[in-house]
Write a structure and sequence with these properties.
mainly alpha, 78% helix
Length: 131
């Protein structure tokens, strides 16, 4: 019978998730946006990533800080953000943040580099009607 072991594993995962949520909240409060972005992406939380982007843009020199933070993300993290912003861009309340991130990606990534992103073709096709 492995029921008890499975319950313990599920509880451990749930506790870890709660700890990460608390850490994310603390990072946002401390304005440590790069770590907050990385953690929100790793948790696969598009709305939380959007919240971080909005918080960055509210700062003075928000665009500059957004560019710095997005530029420092790893390629896989940028791919995740690209997938998230496709959804954000379809909503008029979030389209400005999505466009700011797209602008940053287009400014700081070479076209050849962007073409290497997984899902770039479908992302561009989805972005064009709303952009």
């Amino acid at each position: 019978d492995v029921t008890e072991i499975e319950q313990e594993e599920a509880q451990a995962k749930q506790e870890e998730q709660i700890m990460k949520e608390q850490e994310l909240s603390n990072l946002l409060h401390e304005k440590r946006y790069l770590k907050a972005l990385g953690l929100a992406i790793s948790l696969d939380r598009p709305h939380t990533v959007l919240t971080v982007v909005k918080a960055i843009l509210k700062e003075s020199d928000g665009r500059k800080h957004l560019e710095e933070n997005i530029a420092r993300l790893r390629k896989d993290q940028k791919e995740a953000v690209l997938a998230f912003l496709v959804t954000w861009n379809t909503n008029s309340r979030n389209c400005h943040e999505a466009q700011a991130v797209i602008e940053t990606l287009l400014k700081h990534e070479a076209p050849d580099s962007l073409l290497q992103y997984s899902g770039i073709k479908s992302a561009v096709e989805s972005l064009l009607p709303y952009t």
